[in-house]
Amino acid sequence: xxxxxxxxxxxxxxxxxxxxxxxxxxxxxxxxxxxxxxxxxxxxxxxxxxxxxxxxxxxxxxxxxxxxxxxxxxxxxxxxxxxxxxxxxxxxxxxxxxxxxxxx
Length: 104
What we know:
This protein has about 100 residues and is an all-alpha fold. Helix content is about 80%, strand content about 0%. The longest helix is centred in the last third of the chain and has 17 residues, at about 70-85.
């Protein structure tokens, strides 16, 4: 399933490389295929092309963690927490207490 998604999303990314939705889906598919290095590249490129997106930051932090890059995971979660605290709607919908417990 994730392999098929990755194939389709890679093609879609060629048409619209700056789409956060496409990049998010592709990154998640690659993470589930345990292709962490490629997923990290997709997520970081997407973040450099646009405003920080909490969904991409969350998945990038998880990807770093699963790739055993704990310091980068922690830094990314801290960046995510600063965004969450500034956006009331995001904060309301995120269980940031669990994130803080993991990294405290």
